[in-house]
Amino acid sequence: MKLTVVGAGNVGATVAECVARMDIVQNIALIDINEGVAQGKALDLMEAAPIHGFDTVIEGGADYGITEGSDVTVITAGLPRKPGMSRDDLLKVNSDIVSSVTRQVVEKSPDTILIVVSNPLDVMTYVAYMESGFPSQRVMGMAGVLDTARYRAFLKMELGVSVRDINAMLLGGHGDSMTPLPRFTTIGSQPVTDLIDEARLDEIIERTKKGGGEIVGLMGTSAWYAPGAGAAEMVEAVVKDSNRVLPAAAWVTGQYGLEDLFIGVPVKLGKGGIKEIVELDLNEKEASDMQASGAHVREVIEAYQNLPKDEA
Ligand SMILES: NC(=O)C1=CN([C@@H]2O[C@H](COP(=O)(O)OP(=O)(O)OC[C@H]3O[C@@H](n4cnc5c(N)ncnc54)[C@H](O)[C@@H]3O)[C@@H](O)[C@H]2O)C=CC1
Ligand SMILES: O=C([O-])CC(=O)C(=O)O
């Protein structure tokens, strides 16, 4: 099995490190327009292998020749936001980058599965889908795993229980319009709504929605440990064909009353990519939140479609 990670920056290098430490693929190709950074981080990771005890071979560079025949590709190339920016402000610059890298990836690995991380996430996944011409099962975005992890981390901080016993699902676009689902959140099988009062749970949900921005405010750039681990968890599900049910940005064709866009939904993930979109039975409020989130993603897709097409 071979993984390509495009973008050897903060998130890309973390994805490569996490997957290498799982020791589940034979090769990782780390690509960046900055060749020295890609080569240097690949070499640094190889030098960490004897300590961690993994046998994955990591190669870095700027030439897509090293990506040939990849089974899975994670796209993290693109600019991160700075304080005061929204993810959507990255639309123009990152859509050019994601289009260009997708074309180059697909040329070398026509059968690969694409996991997009670059922001604005749902629309960059759409761009990769359109550019690749791949079946929708093989194109997805990573955001729900991260957003759910943040929600679970905040619940752990609140309740002092192991993260392993916190089960949660979250729907919608990767932005402030995401739709956490307290009704589907359990702590060791107990509904979270029995353990935390509504006002406090609302605060935790609000913090989750703004979790990316909280980190941007602290560091001046966006997060990478949890995002990198989130993408690695998706790679693991595909590589091991484990049929994990994880939230991911997937192409919807009527599920949740939405179609022709990528948005966060629970998917069954394994060999070949998305095997199924799981449809939860939403109540009226959850369904209307999901519609609002879909409307926001649709607006950003339209903004993308209306961009002047000036790239080479
Ligand atoms: N989906 C999600 O939940 C998350 C998404 N992100 C997004 O991931 C992206 C990457 O974030 P970071 O790694 O923190 O940024 P970074 O700046 O550390 O790394 C980005 C890398 O992409 C490279 N790059 C730029 N253009 C390229 C091209 N045409 N071909 C190959 N490489 C290229 C840059 O040289 C840089 O090394 C950003 O768009 C960010 O908003 C970040 C965190 C979470
Ligand atoms: O907030 C950002 O710009 C990066 C991101 O998507 C996240 O950390 O959730």
UniProtKB/TrEMBL annotation:
Active site per UniProt: 174
Record key words, sorted: NAD, Oxidoreductase, Tricarboxylic acid cycle
EC primary class: oxidoreductase
Pfam families from the UniProt entry: Ldh_1_C, Ldh_1_N
Biological process according to GO: lactate metabolic process; tricarboxylic acid cycle
Catalysed reactions, semicolon-separated: (S)-malate + NAD(+) = oxaloacetate + NADH + H(+)
EC numbers on record: 1.1.1.37
Positions bound to NAD(+): 7-12, 32, 94, 117-119
GO molecular function: L-lactate dehydrogenase (NAD+) activity; L-malate dehydrogenase (NAD+) activity
Family in the record: Belongs to the LDH/MDH superfamily. MDH type 3 family.
Role summary: Catalyzes the reversible oxidation of malate to oxaloacetate.
Protein name: Malate dehydrogenase
Source organism of the structure: Rubrivirga marina
Lineage: Bacteria, Pseudomonadati, Rhodothermota, Rhodothermia, Rhodothermales
